[in-house]
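Minimal example, chain plus S-adenosylmethionine.
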Amino acid sequence: MSQTRSEIEALLRRHAVMPRRGLGQHFLADRNLVDKMVDLAGDPARSRALEIGPGTGTITRALAEAGFAVTAYEIDERLRPVLEESLAGLDVDLRFQDATRLDTREFGAGTDWVLVSNLPYQVGTSILLELLQEAAGLGRCVVVAQREVAERLTAGPGSKAYGLPSVITALYGQARLEFRIPPQVFLPVPKVDSAAVSILRVAPPEPVRRLAVRVAAAAFRKRRKMVRSSLRGVLPARAEEILPRAGVDPTERPEDLEPGAYLSIAAAVLEAA
Ligand code: SAM
């Protein structure tokens, strides 16, 4: 079973660990929410779970008890004795390693991976986006993030939250904002609201998608200019030639283009090469 607030407090006290805000250590002290995340993770008989930042092991434990084999990356060595205690006897491959330096080849096709994580907020989005772009075996993600980040991951064109993270997520998956999470359920209590997001992988990493991400990254640097000028000098042929071939109106603004439009631009670039 996942941990209650008093169990988390007792574990931290017993091992003399003070949570570090700099590492995004806001532990999820709500069994119901942990259970919901595990339910969203899918079938343990079909996939292996990857957790970034197990913390005191509350989600890790619930995943392992639901039948998932779990690989978990934790940067904070102080949590080693905590995790050894809370995960004793469970099928968890614990690695004390910085998850910003993951070798994504470990999550290649062959095993179906599900990422389940209450993400550390400083590095969580970039780790998630890197995995989506590079880990061919990643089939699904269930993550808790700051509400603002969750909105960015799930936003569509025309909204303020729409940007490069939204395009990357949509190019590789179908994202859904599952539920909002109030600050009070974390220990210690953060200043912001959070939300759970699920992403179902719909496309594998491939050159045309990687190029679409590079095009979108360049376009969003000048998100309010017409796309023909925000992409001037970025595309190998003149933007005025490539964009119509991709079926994209050159006078549109990057922030109004659907993720699929970036894919069409990338496909037109590859065709022209
Ligand atoms: N999963 C636990 C929970 O829900 O209670 C903890 C979540 S807490 C928001 C984020 C965790 O990520 C912390 O345990 C923190 O030490 C860890 N972390 C922070 N940066 C990390 C990194 N670069 N690599 C691996 N773990 C990291």
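The domain at 207-272 is CATH 1.10.8.100 (Helicase, Ruva Protein; domain 3). The chain has two domains: 5-201, 207-272.
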